[in-house]
Amino acid sequence: xxxxxxxxxxxxxxxxxxxxxxxxxxxxxxxxxxxxxxxxxxxxxxxxxxxxxxxxxxxxxxxxxxxxxxxxxxxxxxxxxxxxxxxxxxxxxxxxxxxxxxxxxxxxxxxxxxxxxxxxxxxxxxxxxxxxxxxxxxxxxxxxxxxxxxxxxxxxxxxxxxxxxxxxxxxxxxxxxxxxxxxxxxxxxxxxxxxxxxxxxxxxxxxxxxxxxxxxxxxxxxxxxxxxxxxxxxxxxxxxxxxxxxxxxxxxxxxxxxxxxxxxxxxxxxxxxxxxxxxxxxxxxxxxxxxxxxxxxxxxxxxxxxxxxxxxxxxxxxxxxxxxxxxxxxxxxxxxxxxxxxxxxxxxxxxxxxxxxxxxxxxxxxxxxxxxxxxxxxxxxxxxxxxxxxxxxxxxxxxxxxxxxxxxxxxxxxxxxxxxxxxxxxxxxxxxxxxxxxxxxxxxxxxxxxxxxxxxxxxxxxxxxxxxxxxxxxxxxxxxxxxxxxxxxxxxxxxxxxxxxxxxxxxxxxxxxxxxxxxxxxxxxxxxxxxxxxxxxxxxxxxxxxxxxxxxxxxxxxxxxxxxxxxxxxxxxxxxxxxxxxxxxxxxxxxxxxxxxxxxxxxxxxxxxxxxxxxxxxxxxxxxxxxxxxxxxxxxxxxxxxxxxxxxxxxxxxxxxxxxxxxxxxxxxxxxxxxxxxxxxxxxxxxxxxxxx
Length: 693
Hints:
19 helices, Glycosyltransferase
């Protein structure tokens, strides 16, 4: 038996161990059906185009209202057209890789590795997790979401320049021909089909006034078959059990959107009802009542909310609105998003991110949260305390489909800073040059595998005037580079304490965790100049002797400083305490004192960092053996960044005190030794100790 086969069997065994008996039974049922569906596969050689038009008259009844294009602001139009013009030249960035081969795309080639999967292989015999078979499947799948075509269709809608519509038609017909039912890697994952259906609906809608659109969609028998095939697949193979995370949201949203916009089939009414119920149920399951996503991966909250709003707008337009409960939860997702962004409208960087978009109608941007807020504003309205998002193409166009804003009762009257159900608390100052601090004291992640969680309990993320100071490292990769995947998810890659040389939660695969660390907030106080947060977690309860990590974070708004107090209870253990910095931050270390500066930022600044003297501190940047000192601003991208690492032994009753003090913008920091206070002085001076503890 080969090593690859042995590894796969081991993965399946670990995966099965995290499933309930009901899920195991359902997955067995899925495998039986997939085997039975093998004769239904259509290969490219078997694909015979039907008559030039379907056997009955079909129509699209969901165009945008007249005058919608004129409502798209000029500042949004320009980047859409610039991106569309680059696409006409074959250029498009896909997960950190600039592609220049999109005039005639190869739907099965991974541009990173050059590997090409078999387009005629029965989909359920394709192992999309195997790099040998398919290359980096994220790169391959991303293009087939067809979101580059929704952007081109938006460009046509804004200009009626036929070059954009012709390129859309060329790529769509290519995809129809090259990807018949159940052939190849693009039929292996329901989330991809759901997002693709949303793209198809919006391509048809945006091209409604183009003379060739009917021949591209409802008068093309293959196009009609493709739309039906997608919905048949989603109806038969929904994500369930431990996989029912954002994937099931995308599947249900795609099915609902398509069954509303393309009600062409005898099953359409049934598909619409079932997908609406599924979406409503799973939106509630996938989010806390506060609106924070249960995956505790910030960008997936944005992704799920966007999918929910797009599908809800489609249902509203079709005359089958979703329930008030669903609109209340969608509003909570938007309100929590508005509350969590910093002064630059940047979200937390908690957990995984693959930059997934439910619908792309604007030029791609690294930070999609302003677009989410603009979309929510168009559908449910912004609250007085929200930041003011600028309208973009997406918010105008989706808002036009829904016709009117939905009024939702019970939304928060002022900006919340704590989301107790999710264990997320924000300590922050007001006004310019905001100090923004996210504290993590909640669950590890969602469902038994917590696939998009990181081992980051009690970590903190600190920004000053929107600059990453104490930074979450990001994600970097999902597939292929296993060592890098493990590092970016690890405890030592986050601003928290590693005890006993291991992660707080046990990694069992690139998207699988066991023995989840459970954190809980012990105390949260916010009173005038002082805000204080305390939490603890049990991720090291299995050590001998068991250990408990407790952390307190104190923001003093008057002195513009943050104190972090770590206590390790339960005997003596090896401890590593890490502080990671954003790529704009320079760090100079002198024993247990560090000077921080960010001279190249829009608002240059500096800070002083006093570190626990009981630990031995070292400075790292861009290291690979072991991996340490990296920052990823998106999937497929990483840059070197400074990391401070303190190593030592924990001791009962010996807290580890760290102080971060910001200087005014433009002020120069003093040499490190002139301002640092040692742990010895903390213990000898009760006034200083009281101040930081």
